[in-house]
């Protein structure tokens, strides 16, 4: 089974909406990082946090993230 190389109109709309939500999240993380992070943890969704310290990158996984 081959895959189409273009997204359907519905998939494109879903992508656009997802990107807008990411922009909103980035805005909140810059404006109120601690409060936003605490709220994300309370949502109990799988997520990862990457932290760069002294040239090393450390990953923290929350809420059963694979």
Describe the protein in words:
By secondary structure, the protein is of the alpha+beta class. It has one domain (about 10-60). Helices cover about 50% and strands about 20% of the residues. Strands 1-2 form a two-stranded antiparallel ribbon. A hairpin with a 2-residue loop joins strand 1 and strand 2 (about 55-60). Helix 1 (about 10-30) packs across helix 2. The model has no long low-confidence stretch (mean pLDDT about 90).
Overall mean pLDDT stands at: 89
Number of helices: 2
Structural class of the helix and strand makeup? alpha+beta
The major pleated sheet works out as: 2 strands, antiparallel
Q: If strands are numbered along the chain, what order do they take across the biggest sheet?
A: 1-2
**Can you count the beta strands?**
2
Radius of gyration, rounded?
16 Å
Q: Would you identify the regions where 5 or more consecutive residues have pLDDT less than 50?
A: none
Specify the helix fraction band. Answer: 40-55%
Give the overall shape, derived from the CA principal axes: extended
Distance between the terminal alpha carbons, to the nearest Å?
28 Å
Element-level helix/strand string: HHEE
Strand content: 15-25%
Describe this structure in a few short sentences.
The chain has 66 residues and is of the alpha+beta class. It has one domain (9-62). Helix content is 50%, strand content 21%.
């Amino acid at each position: 089974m081959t895959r189409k190389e273009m997204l359907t109109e519905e998939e494109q709309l879903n992508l656009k909406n997802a990107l807008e939500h990411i922009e909103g999240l980035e805005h909140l993380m810059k404006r109120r990082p601690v409060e936003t992070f605490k709220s994300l943890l309370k949502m109990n969704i799988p997520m990862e946090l990457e932290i760069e310290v002294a040239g090393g990158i450390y990953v923290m996984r929350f809420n059963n993230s694979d």
